[in-house]
Amino acid sequence: MRRYDARGGASLELVILAPFLLALLMLIVAFARFTQAKGLVDQAARDAARAATAQNSFQGAHTAIDSAVTDALHGAPSSCRESAGVVPDIPQHAFDPVPEGTTSVDPTQLQSITVTVTCDVDLGDLVILPLGKKPIRFTFTSPMDKYRGYQR
Question: What is the pLDDT of residue 152?
Answer without folding.
Answer: 46
